[in-house]
Amino acid sequence: MTPRTALGALHIGALMFGLTGVFGKLAAATPAVIVFGRAAFAVLALAFFARFARGQGWQKLQAVDWRRLLLSGVLLAGHWVSFFISVKVAGVAIATLGFASFPAFTVILEGLIFRERIRANEIILVTLVTVGLVLVTPAFDLGSGATTGLLWAILSGLLFSLLSLTNRASSGRIPAVQAALCQNVVVALCLLPVAAPQLSEVRAIDWLWIGLLGVFCTGVAHSLFVASLAVIKARTAAVVFALEPVYGITVAWLLFDENPTLRMLIGGALIIVAIVVSSQMSGGSDKKAVAAEAASH
Questions:
Q1: Residue 29: pLDDT band with limits 50, 70, 90
Q2: Which of 28, 156, 177, 257 is deepest in the core (most CB within 10 A)?
Q3: What DSSP state is assigned to residue 140?
Q4: DSSP 8-state secondary structure symbol assigned to residue 232
Protein backbone atom coordinates (compact mmCIF):
# COMPACT_ATOMS: atom_id res chain seq x y z
CA MET A 1 0.00 0.00 0.00
CA THR A 2 1.41 3.38 -1.05
CA PRO A 3 1.03 6.51 1.12
CA ARG A 4 -1.59 7.87 -1.30
CA THR A 5 -3.73 4.73 -1.25
CA ALA A 6 -3.27 4.47 2.52
CA LEU A 7 -4.55 8.03 2.95
CA GLY A 8 -7.51 7.21 0.72
CA ALA A 9 -8.22 4.10 2.79
CA LEU A 10 -8.14 6.22 5.96
CA HIS A 11 -10.74 8.60 4.57
CA ILE A 12 -12.93 5.69 3.47
CA GLY A 13 -12.63 4.25 6.97
CA ALA A 14 -13.55 7.61 8.52
CA LEU A 15 -16.55 7.84 6.17
CA MET A 16 -17.68 4.37 7.23
CA PHE A 17 -17.33 5.28 10.90
CA GLY A 18 -19.34 8.43 10.13
CA LEU A 19 -22.15 6.33 8.63
CA THR A 20 -22.68 4.56 11.96
CA GLY A 21 -25.47 6.90 13.03
CA VAL A 22 -27.00 6.90 9.54
CA PHE A 23 -27.40 3.12 9.43
CA GLY A 24 -28.62 3.18 13.03
CA LYS A 25 -31.37 5.61 12.07
CA LEU A 26 -32.29 3.67 8.93
CA ALA A 27 -32.76 0.45 10.91
CA ALA A 28 -36.25 0.42 12.46
CA ALA A 29 -35.12 -1.71 15.41
CA THR A 30 -34.39 -1.05 19.06
CA PRO A 31 -30.87 0.04 20.08
CA ALA A 32 -30.38 -3.33 21.82
CA VAL A 33 -31.09 -5.24 18.60
CA ILE A 34 -28.95 -2.87 16.53
CA VAL A 35 -25.97 -3.22 18.87
CA PHE A 36 -26.32 -7.01 19.11
CA GLY A 37 -26.51 -7.33 15.33
CA ARG A 38 -23.65 -4.92 14.78
CA ALA A 39 -21.41 -6.86 17.15
CA ALA A 40 -22.35 -10.23 15.64
CA PHE A 41 -21.64 -9.10 12.08
CA ALA A 42 -18.46 -7.34 13.22
CA VAL A 43 -17.14 -10.57 14.74
CA LEU A 44 -17.57 -12.31 11.38
CA ALA A 45 -15.92 -9.46 9.47
CA LEU A 46 -12.99 -9.13 11.88
CA ALA A 47 -12.45 -12.91 11.93
CA PHE A 48 -12.32 -12.88 8.12
CA PHE A 49 -9.82 -10.01 8.15
CA ALA A 50 -7.65 -11.67 10.79
CA ARG A 51 -7.65 -14.92 8.83
CA PHE A 52 -6.33 -13.42 5.59
CA ALA A 53 -4.29 -10.42 6.77
CA ARG A 54 -0.57 -10.86 7.09
CA GLY A 55 1.25 -10.07 10.28
CA GLN A 56 -1.87 -10.36 12.43
CA GLY A 57 -0.62 -12.96 14.85
CA TRP A 58 -2.68 -13.79 17.91
CA GLN A 59 -1.36 -13.03 21.36
CA LYS A 60 -1.81 -15.63 24.08
CA LEU A 61 -4.03 -13.92 26.62
CA GLN A 62 -3.36 -13.88 30.34
CA ALA A 63 -5.92 -13.49 33.11
CA VAL A 64 -5.37 -9.73 33.28
CA ASP A 65 -5.97 -9.48 29.52
CA TRP A 66 -9.27 -11.32 29.78
CA ARG A 67 -10.40 -9.01 32.59
CA ARG A 68 -9.53 -5.93 30.56
CA LEU A 69 -11.26 -7.28 27.45
CA LEU A 70 -14.35 -8.14 29.46
CA LEU A 71 -14.44 -4.65 30.98
CA SER A 72 -13.82 -2.97 27.62
CA GLY A 73 -16.52 -5.11 25.99
CA VAL A 74 -19.08 -4.02 28.60
CA LEU A 75 -18.05 -0.37 28.14
CA LEU A 76 -18.30 -0.75 24.36
CA ALA A 77 -21.82 -2.19 24.70
CA GLY A 78 -22.88 0.75 26.87
CA HIS A 79 -21.22 3.24 24.50
CA TRP A 80 -23.03 1.85 21.45
CA VAL A 81 -26.43 1.49 23.14
CA SER A 82 -26.40 5.06 24.47
CA PHE A 83 -25.24 6.37 21.08
CA PHE A 84 -28.06 4.66 19.17
CA ILE A 85 -30.62 5.81 21.75
CA SER A 86 -29.40 9.34 21.03
CA VAL A 87 -29.71 8.76 17.27
CA LYS A 88 -33.30 7.57 17.67
CA VAL A 89 -34.25 10.44 20.00
CA ALA A 90 -32.36 13.44 18.60
CA GLY A 91 -31.03 12.52 15.16
CA VAL A 92 -27.63 11.76 13.68
CA ALA A 93 -26.09 15.26 13.92
CA ILE A 94 -26.71 15.85 17.62
CA ALA A 95 -25.80 12.25 18.50
CA THR A 96 -22.52 12.45 16.58
CA LEU A 97 -21.48 15.82 18.01
CA GLY A 98 -22.49 14.87 21.56
CA PHE A 99 -20.42 11.70 21.35
CA ALA A 100 -17.50 13.73 19.98
CA SER A 101 -17.17 15.31 23.44
CA PHE A 102 -15.01 12.34 24.50
CA PRO A 103 -11.62 14.17 24.35
CA ALA A 104 -12.75 16.43 27.20
CA PHE A 105 -13.71 13.42 29.31
CA THR A 106 -10.38 11.79 28.50
CA VAL A 107 -8.45 14.82 29.79
CA ILE A 108 -10.49 14.93 33.00
CA LEU A 109 -10.37 11.18 33.61
CA GLU A 110 -6.62 10.98 32.99
CA GLY A 111 -6.16 13.68 35.60
CA LEU A 112 -8.37 11.86 38.11
CA ILE A 113 -7.28 8.28 37.49
CA PHE A 114 -3.56 8.76 36.84
CA ARG A 115 -3.17 11.81 39.09
CA GLU A 116 -1.77 13.79 36.18
CA ARG A 117 -1.73 17.56 36.32
CA ILE A 118 -4.07 19.13 33.77
CA ARG A 119 -2.07 21.47 31.53
CA ALA A 120 -3.21 24.82 30.14
CA ASN A 121 -3.74 23.47 26.61
CA GLU A 122 -5.91 20.67 28.04
CA ILE A 123 -8.05 23.25 29.85
CA ILE A 124 -8.50 24.98 26.50
CA LEU A 125 -9.56 21.65 24.97
CA VAL A 126 -12.19 21.08 27.67
CA THR A 127 -13.43 24.65 27.21
CA LEU A 128 -13.75 24.18 23.43
CA VAL A 129 -15.82 21.03 23.90
CA THR A 130 -18.01 22.62 26.57
CA VAL A 131 -18.75 25.72 24.49
CA GLY A 132 -19.34 23.50 21.45
CA LEU A 133 -21.89 21.40 23.32
CA VAL A 134 -23.70 24.52 24.56
CA LEU A 135 -23.96 25.78 20.98
CA VAL A 136 -25.09 22.38 19.66
CA THR A 137 -27.97 22.19 22.16
CA PRO A 138 -31.04 23.97 20.68
CA ALA A 139 -32.61 24.58 24.11
CA PHE A 140 -31.90 23.35 27.64
CA ASP A 141 -35.20 21.58 28.17
CA LEU A 142 -35.21 18.04 29.57
CA GLY A 143 -38.61 17.54 27.95
CA SER A 144 -37.06 18.23 24.58
CA GLY A 145 -35.97 15.29 22.46
CA ALA A 146 -32.89 17.19 21.31
CA THR A 147 -31.70 17.83 24.87
CA THR A 148 -32.45 14.27 26.02
CA GLY A 149 -30.69 12.88 22.96
CA LEU A 150 -27.66 15.09 23.56
CA LEU A 151 -27.41 13.83 27.15
CA TRP A 152 -27.44 10.23 25.89
CA ALA A 153 -24.74 11.19 23.36
CA ILE A 154 -22.61 12.79 26.06
CA LEU A 155 -22.96 9.59 28.11
CA SER A 156 -21.80 7.70 25.01
CA GLY A 157 -18.75 9.99 24.84
CA LEU A 158 -17.99 9.40 28.53
CA LEU A 159 -18.16 5.62 28.08
CA PHE A 160 -16.02 5.85 24.94
CA SER A 161 -13.41 7.82 26.89
CA LEU A 162 -13.31 5.14 29.60
CA LEU A 163 -13.10 2.52 26.87
CA SER A 164 -10.21 4.31 25.14
CA LEU A 165 -8.26 4.51 28.40
CA THR A 166 -8.86 0.80 29.00
CA ASN A 167 -7.78 -0.07 25.46
CA ARG A 168 -4.63 2.02 25.68
CA ALA A 169 -3.64 0.21 28.84
CA SER A 170 -3.58 -3.08 26.94
CA SER A 171 -2.78 -1.90 23.41
CA GLY A 172 0.91 -2.72 23.81
CA ARG A 173 0.19 -6.44 24.33
CA ILE A 174 -2.93 -7.33 22.38
CA PRO A 175 -3.13 -6.79 18.58
CA ALA A 176 -5.89 -4.32 17.67
CA VAL A 177 -7.87 -6.80 15.56
CA GLN A 178 -7.75 -9.48 18.24
CA ALA A 179 -8.89 -6.99 20.89
CA ALA A 180 -11.72 -5.70 18.68
CA LEU A 181 -12.93 -9.22 17.92
CA CYS A 182 -12.97 -10.23 21.58
CA GLN A 183 -14.73 -7.01 22.60
CA ASN A 184 -17.45 -7.54 20.00
CA VAL A 185 -18.00 -11.08 21.26
CA VAL A 186 -18.55 -9.63 24.75
CA VAL A 187 -20.94 -7.00 23.34
CA ALA A 188 -23.01 -9.64 21.53
CA LEU A 189 -23.22 -11.79 24.67
CA CYS A 190 -24.21 -8.78 26.80
CA LEU A 191 -27.06 -7.78 24.48
CA LEU A 192 -28.25 -11.28 23.56
CA PRO A 193 -30.69 -11.68 26.52
CA VAL A 194 -32.37 -8.35 25.68
CA ALA A 195 -32.26 -8.67 21.89
CA ALA A 196 -33.22 -12.35 21.52
CA PRO A 197 -37.02 -11.93 22.08
CA GLN A 198 -37.09 -9.16 19.46
CA LEU A 199 -35.03 -10.80 16.70
CA SER A 200 -37.98 -12.51 15.01
CA GLU A 201 -39.68 -9.13 14.54
CA VAL A 202 -36.76 -7.49 12.73
CA ARG A 203 -37.53 -6.83 9.06
CA ALA A 204 -35.23 -8.05 6.29
CA ILE A 205 -34.36 -4.49 5.25
CA ASP A 206 -33.36 -3.70 8.83
CA TRP A 207 -31.04 -6.72 8.89
CA LEU A 208 -29.44 -5.23 5.78
CA TRP A 209 -28.73 -1.93 7.57
CA ILE A 210 -27.50 -3.73 10.68
CA GLY A 211 -25.31 -6.00 8.57
CA LEU A 212 -23.77 -3.00 6.78
CA LEU A 213 -23.24 -1.39 10.16
CA GLY A 214 -21.39 -4.41 11.54
CA VAL A 215 -19.41 -5.37 8.44
CA PHE A 216 -18.48 -1.98 6.97
CA CYS A 217 -18.75 0.53 9.84
CA THR A 218 -16.93 -1.80 12.23
CA GLY A 219 -15.04 -4.65 10.56
CA VAL A 220 -13.95 -3.07 7.27
CA ALA A 221 -13.46 0.45 8.69
CA HIS A 222 -11.25 -0.82 11.50
CA SER A 223 -9.32 -3.07 9.12
CA LEU A 224 -8.63 -0.12 6.80
CA PHE A 225 -7.29 1.89 9.73
CA VAL A 226 -5.02 -0.93 10.87
CA ALA A 227 -3.70 -1.54 7.35
CA SER A 228 -3.14 2.18 6.70
CA LEU A 229 -1.18 2.67 9.92
CA ALA A 230 1.58 0.52 8.43
CA VAL A 231 2.25 3.40 6.00
CA ILE A 232 0.67 6.58 7.40
CA LYS A 233 1.86 8.46 10.47
CA ALA A 234 -0.32 8.04 13.54
CA ARG A 235 -0.88 11.79 13.84
CA THR A 236 -2.21 11.92 10.28
CA ALA A 237 -4.52 9.00 11.00
CA ALA A 238 -5.81 10.69 14.15
CA VAL A 239 -6.62 13.90 12.25
CA VAL A 240 -8.47 11.96 9.53
CA PHE A 241 -10.33 10.12 12.29
CA ALA A 242 -11.51 13.53 13.54
CA LEU A 243 -13.33 14.10 10.22
CA GLU A 244 -15.82 11.36 11.07
CA PRO A 245 -18.47 13.78 12.45
CA VAL A 246 -18.20 15.86 9.26
CA TYR A 247 -18.91 12.83 7.09
CA GLY A 248 -21.75 11.61 9.30
CA ILE A 249 -23.52 14.98 9.56
CA THR A 250 -23.14 15.60 5.81
CA VAL A 251 -24.72 12.26 4.87
CA ALA A 252 -27.52 12.74 7.43
CA TRP A 253 -28.20 16.18 5.94
CA LEU A 254 -28.47 14.68 2.45
CA LEU A 255 -30.59 11.64 3.43
CA PHE A 256 -32.78 12.84 6.30
CA ASP A 257 -32.91 16.59 5.66
CA GLU A 258 -31.32 17.20 9.09
CA ASN A 259 -30.39 20.81 8.44
CA PRO A 260 -27.92 22.02 11.09
CA THR A 261 -28.29 25.62 12.20
CA LEU A 262 -25.40 28.09 12.02
CA ARG A 263 -25.10 27.85 15.81
CA MET A 264 -24.87 24.05 15.62
CA LEU A 265 -22.25 24.25 12.86
CA ILE A 266 -20.10 26.62 14.94
CA GLY A 267 -20.44 24.32 17.97
CA GLY A 268 -19.58 21.29 15.86
CA ALA A 269 -16.52 23.07 14.46
CA LEU A 270 -15.27 23.79 17.99
CA ILE A 271 -15.73 20.14 18.99
CA ILE A 272 -13.92 18.88 15.88
CA VAL A 273 -11.05 21.30 16.53
CA ALA A 274 -10.87 19.89 20.06
CA ILE A 275 -10.63 16.33 18.66
CA VAL A 276 -7.74 17.34 16.39
CA VAL A 277 -5.97 19.15 19.24
CA SER A 278 -6.47 16.12 21.49
CA SER A 279 -4.98 13.78 18.89
CA GLN A 280 -1.89 15.96 18.63
CA MET A 281 -1.44 16.19 22.42
CA SER A 282 -1.71 12.53 23.36
CA GLY A 283 -2.35 9.31 21.50
CA GLY A 284 -1.88 10.81 18.08
CA SER A 285 1.79 9.83 18.15
CA ASP A 286 1.14 6.20 19.11
CA LYS A 287 -0.04 3.92 16.32
CA LYS A 288 -1.21 1.25 18.74
CA ALA A 289 -3.26 3.80 20.66
CA VAL A 290 -4.88 5.10 17.46
CA ALA A 291 -5.67 1.55 16.33
CA ALA A 292 -7.15 0.74 19.72
CA GLU A 293 -9.33 3.85 19.61
CA ALA A 294 -10.55 3.02 16.11
CA ALA A 295 -11.31 -0.53 17.20
CA SER A 296 -13.69 0.71 19.87
CA HIS A 297 -15.72 3.07 17.74
A1: very high
A2: 156
A3: -
A4: S
